[in-house]
Amino acid sequence: MVETLMRKTRIAVLGTGGTIAGEASSASDVLSYQDSQLSAADTLAPLAPYLPREVELLALQISQLGSENFSTDTWLLLAHAISRLDQTEEPDGFVLTQGTDTLEETAYFLHLALKTAKPVVVVGAMRPATAISADGPLNLLRAVQLAASPQVRGFGVMVVANERIFSAREVTKSHTSSIDSFCSPEFGCVGYMQNGDVKLHRMPSRHHTINSPFSVSGLQSLPKVDIVYAYAGAGSESIRAFLDGGTRGLVHAGTGNGSISSVHQMAYREAILRGVAVVRSSRTGSGLVSRNGAVDDDAFGSISSDTLSPQKARVLLSLALTLKQDAPELQRYFDNY
Predict the structure, then answer these.
(1) Could you read off the pLDDT of 300-329 as tens digits, one per residue?
(2) Of 279, 227, 273, which is closest to residue 258 (Cα–Cα)?
(3) Are 204 and 119 in contact (CB under 8 A)?
(4) Which CATH architecture has domain 225-336?
(5) Where do the domains of the chain lie?
(6) Residue 299's pLDDT band (boundaries 50, 70, 90)?
C-alpha cells in the first residue's frame, strides 16, 4: 500500500524588528527595553510545540528596525520582498512581524499594493519577548494560524492582536501601552481567533490587493506626502515648509468634520494652484469626513478622506499620486479604497 504524502502548508514569516523582538534586563520590565533584538527565527522558536504538524515555516529577516523608523522606502522594500517570495518560494500565506507604532500604516500600504490573494497577516506586540506575560508569542502563533487558513484567502492584509482579526484599512493603535491597544472604532473586527480556529463575522468592504489598481512593481520611491495637524491658533508655516520641501500632497488632520481654518485655507489654496493635492481628514479618531461638508470641496479643489485617518489617508494618497493628479480622480480612490 502506497501512502500519500500531503503537502504541508508553508507560511513565510518576515521579521523587521519591533517590540515583538525586544528584550529587557528584567522579566518584570515592560517599558524600558531594547526593541528589535531578536531575529524572526528567535521569535518563532517558542511556537514550535504548538504549531500544527501540517504547517511549516520559512523565516526571513528583512530588517531590525523599530517601526517609528519605518519610511515609505521600508514599505516598498517589504512589498518587493513579499512579491518576490510569492513567485520564488510559493508559500501559502505570509506573516510580517513589526513594531506596533506604525503597524497600521504598513498593513494598509500592503493591503493596497500587493498583488496576491494569499493571506497576509501583520503582527506585533506591546510587551517585549522577555516579559513575564509577553503578548508576542501568542499573537504570532495566531498570525501563523490565520495565514494558514483558507477561510481568509482573498481578505487582503489583516492584523491579529489579542485574539481579534482586523482588516488593514480600518485597524488603528488606540493605546500607548495596553496589550488591547488595537481596534477598529467605526466597523469593529472582522473576526476572532479561538484556540487557533478562525471565526469570521464579516468581509472587508473596500477593494484591495488584486482588485486594486495600484502597483509598486519597479517603483523605487513614492510621491512625497505630508500631514498638517490642525489646532486652535495654528499658523500656515508648516504648509509653506512642506511646499518648499517638494511635497506632492498634503493631508489636513482637521478639527471636527475636517474643518479648515481661514489661515490654513489661504495656504492650501496656494498649494492647490501649484498642483499639490489636498486631502481633508479628521484628528477626531472616528467618523466620516463628508464630501462638501465642512468645506465646499468642489469649489475649493480638495478631497475628502471618507473614514480614513490622517495617517491612512497619507498612505492612499501616496499610491494614488503614482497614477492620477487631478482632484476628481483622486476622490474616486478615496471613495473606493
Answers:
(1) 999 999 999 999 999 999 999 999 999 999
(2) 279
(3) no
(4) 3-Layer(aba) Sandwich (3.40)
(5) 9-211, 225-336
(6) very high
Whether this model's pTM surpasses 0.90: yes
The band of 7, judged by pLDDT with boundaries at 50, 70 and 90, is: confident
What does pLDDT average to over the chain? 96
Spatial separation of the C-alpha atoms in residues 45 and 28, rounded to whole Å? 21
Contact (CB, 8 A) for 190 and 200: yes
> Residue 26 is placed in which grid cell?
528584567
In this prediction, residue 5 carries a pLDDT of 57
Q: List the CATH code of the domain at 9-211.
A: 3.40.50.1170
pLDDT higher than 90, residue 1: no
Give how far Cα 336 sits from Cα of 61, 171, 213, 248, Å: 34, 17, 11, 21
Mean pLDDT, residues 240-262: 98
Active centre residues (catalytic):
19
Model confidence band, residue 2 (pLDDT cutoffs 50, 70, 90): very low
d(CA 145, CA 11): 9
8 Å CB contact between 84 and 56:
no
9-211 and 225-336 agree in CATH topology: yes
Question: What distance lies between CA 186 and its chain's CA centroid?
Answer: 17
How is residue 217 written as a grid cell? Answer: 512593481
